Amino acid sequence: MSSFIHLVCDYAPGDMAWAEIVAALSCKLHDDTRIHTTSVHAFDTISTGFILAQLALTPNKLRPSNVLVFANTAPRRDRKEARPNNEGEGLLFATLKNGVQVLAVNAGNSLSFIKNDIQELWSTNVEEQGSQFRSRDYFPLAVSKASRSDFSFIKNKLAIAEIVPDEPKDIVGYVDSFGNIKTTIRSGDSKLEHLTPGTRLKISIGSQSKTATVATGSFNILEGDLAFSPGSSGHDKRYWELFKRGGSAADEFAHPVAGAAVKIQPA
Question: Which of 5, 59, 81, 224 is deepest in the core (most CB within 10 A)?
Fold first, then answer.
C-alpha cells in the first residue's frame, strides 16, 4: 500500500483545479495516505518528466516507503485533428527497478527521464474521453487502486522502447523558484570533461548569451556571479545548472522555457 503520493500537474499553485483533484483523490485514498503537490507550467511535459524522475528515483533514505508518483500533464498534442468527446492521451502505469510506482499520462517527455529505470510499462483501462477534467473525474480511481496494490486497472504490457521517448539532451529541463536553470547536461557528458573550477564559458540559451564561471557549488563564487556547476538534481549522475549567487539566472537569460536549447562554448 502506498503511504505517500507525489502529484505533479500543470496547474498553477493555488489553482482551483488543485483543490478539486486533491479532494477527489482524498475521497478514494486511505486516510493515512499523504499527498504532496508540485506544479509545472501549462503543457510542460519536459519539466514534468524532470521532476517525476527526481522524485521517483530519490534514494531510499530520503523518501518514504511505498511511494507512488502521479504525473498528470496532458496537452492533448499527440494528434492535431479535432478530438471527439474530449479524448486525451492515455494513462500509463509503470513499475520502476527501485520499486516505486508511477502513473503518468502518455504525453511528450513525461516518462523520458525514467526510461532506463522502468521495469514494466502497462496501458490502463482508464477512460480516455468523456470528460475535459479526467484528472478529477477518472484518474483518482486508478491512483487509489494502485495505492492499494489493486492492479485491476492495468491492461496491456507495453514495449518501453517503442512508447517512451529518449531523455532530451542539451536543453533546459526545469527552472526552479530561485531562478536556477537546471539543464539536461549530466555529469559524465563529454562536453564537461575539460571543465575545471574557474573556467570561463559562453553559454547560450535561445537568443541570450552570457559568460559563466565553472564552479563546484552554489557558494564558492562571488555574490552576483553567474555560475555553471553540478546541481542538486539527478542523484548519482547530477544535472548541471546555471545559477546566480544572490540573484536569478532565469532573469539573466530572459526566463527560458523548458526545452530551450543550451549551448556551451569557451569564453
Answer: 5
- 209 vs 73: CA distance, rounded Å: 31
Model pTM?
0.92
Query: Amino acid letter at 159?
Result: A
As a whole number of angstroms, the distance between CA 4 and CA 34 comes to 5
In this structure, the answer to whether residues 192 and 209 fall within a common structural domain is yes
Q: Which of 242, 233, 178, 236 is nearest to 49 (CA)?
A: 233
Write out pLDDT tens, residues 21-37: 999 999 999 888 999 99
The identity of residue 106, as a single letter, is: N
Q: Please name the residues in contact with 160: beta carbons below 8 A apart, sequence gap of 6 or more.
A: 115, 118, 121
Q: Please report the pLDDT score of residue 200 as a whole number.
A: 93
If asked whether residues 36 and 137 sit together in one domain, one would say: yes
* 33-56 tens-digit pLDDT: 999 999 999 999 999 999 999 999
Closest CA to 192 of 261, 244, 240, 260: 240
